[in-house]
Amino acid sequence: MENLLKKEKSPYLKQHENNPVHWFPWGKKAIDKAKELKRPIFLSVGYSSCHWCHVMAHESFEDIKTSNIMNEKFINVKVDREERPDLDFVFQKSLSVLTGMQGGWPLSMFLDENGVPFTGGTYFPPKEIQGRPDFIKVLNNVSEVYKVNRDKIIDQAPQMKMVFDELNKKSSVINQSLSPYVDRILPYLDQKFGGFQGNPKFPQFYIFETLFYFYRKNKEDKYLEPVEKLLFNVCSRGLYDHLSGGIARYTVDAEWIIPHFEKMLYDNILFIDLLSQFYQFTQKNYYKEKLIQTINFISKEFINKDGLLGSAYDADSEGVEGKFYVWGYKELEEILKSDFDFFKEKFDISEIGNWENKNILIEKNQIELSDIEKNKLIKIKTNLNNERNKRIKPFFDDKAQTDLNSYWVSSLLKASIILNDNLLTAECMRLFDLLEKKLNNTMFHTDANASVPAFLEDYTYYSMMLINFYEFTGHIKYLNKAEETMNETWNLFFDNNREILQKNPLNKNDLFVNPVDINDNNIPNGNSIYLNNCQKLELITNKKEWKNKLELLKKSFHSFINLNSTQMFSFIKMLDFAENSISITFYGNKKINDDIKIFLQKSFFGRAVFIYKNDPNNNFIIICKNQTCSDKLITIEDIKKYINNKF
């Protein structure tokens, strides 16, 4: 046998193509070889910007002694979790079921020869440390257990499948008030630094977007304050890159100081999405500046050779975590010279640093800056950024994912409307055209030739983007394609027994169970996006097929939420929005209504559904909220007066 990763396209898998381990990619070939040799499978799941994935690779997968044991006793499979989110979901859940452990990456699972897991873990060190057994001992123990108990282990497969069925239990509730579920999380929020209490600290923006939605609906400050606290601390402390923009994935501490330095596209999309809404609401320049800086960073630094957006930047450079981003005190003093004292007034830096004798930049005294101070800071940051760019940059995973590129375009379109920035709007169109060219009337996640080419989120986020373009432009071509894609999604993914869309196509599943995922993960669940798309299509087209799907899914999701609310926050928002919708319908000539459209979209895009009706004789607007509609509104003064009274 040999290492078969040389033929793979994933940047993460290519990082392992020269390991002495005889890696297989996931697929029938690996399973067949395991059956032929009656060996267990070692499954390693990671991604290119995962620090501990690299650590385990250097310690174990590049080590001859360890790799010899792996090759002798196992069939070894390497998976990029960003290429196979369905597989990652199933085996992360499996780890929790089998061991009670919380999952993570690297994910290290042991499967029987049919691909059913029987034990596993995450990172295993080369020598036992802090209660983690050494990897060689684990390999030898698992191999021995499998030899002695092979038949018993294989016979346990039906039980494992039954456990997964139990995980997706539903209640009999088909409708309920949703704000109590939002209230349940409030005691767990960090009142000082924002986000959730404890560490490590993930921003989980989609949860706070749901809080913001309920604030705008109910006007209760208990929902607004956590959003402002989170965004201020994220924008001002160590999670945010103050020189170029963008955020890291999480911080290891509870005060947002020490990031785990990898930068993921999905985190930054969610950040932009919430930040643009919050800026539109507050009109505070502080948030506008962070919004524009981060958009510029993503638009410049995440573009791959095809002009689309790649996936992530590594935490490490030159084999050292965070090396690209941190600063020595003397280093700053030498670079900034006469500006150093001013910089110290505006950033919390010291000789001992705040991480391993280095400084992660943390803002101080920057909420109210004079124009002179702002310009001076911009000059200093530009200087430091130029110096930093002389360093070796972290590895960029340039793999373009359809779901994330579609989500970025939707979020960028919303931001361009709020910022009234035509150049950003043009960038949205450019990215859309490139994505269309790449997909070429097919649908795939990263690779058209993959065994499972596309997943639920690829279809739903792509459909969301198309609907957003219709809402922005009124062009029917986007609406027609959205309907076509949404119908295809239903046919490929809808599980009639569970009344939910599964993560991979029903006819393409190559896992031991069907991956029915009801949780929000890195991005809101594809089911909740499908629900929102359904509702918009029903309001726009008035077609019964969308109403029927919407009603079926609403009942089904309510019965899941009753038992799983903390993991389904995007569903809570989308279900409530489905019952409390806002629609804005334009009748008549689109060009005549342009000024009014710009005003309404700036205030309501993303909060309301925009609909366009041809009327050769009239030009007016109808605004509906909770099935109650306005009279015909003709002038912008009429519209403002109505909004002030009703919103």
Overall outline: globular
Total number of distinct structural domains: 4
Placed side by side, the strands forming the largest sheet appear as 1-3-2-4-5
Which fold name is given in CATH as the topology of the largest domain?
Glycosyltransferase
Q: Which CATH C-level class of the largest domain is it?
A: Mainly Alpha
CATH architecture grouping of the largest domain: Alpha/alpha barrel
> Whole-number radius of gyration?
26 Å
What structural class is derived from the secondary structure elements? alpha+beta
N- to C-terminal distance: 67 Å
Secondary structure tally, helices: 24
Kindly state the mean pLDDT as a whole number? 95
Q: How would a textbook summarize the main sheet?
A: 5 strands, mixed
| Strand content bin | 5-15%
Helix content: 40-55%
Number of strands: 18
Low-confidence stretches: none
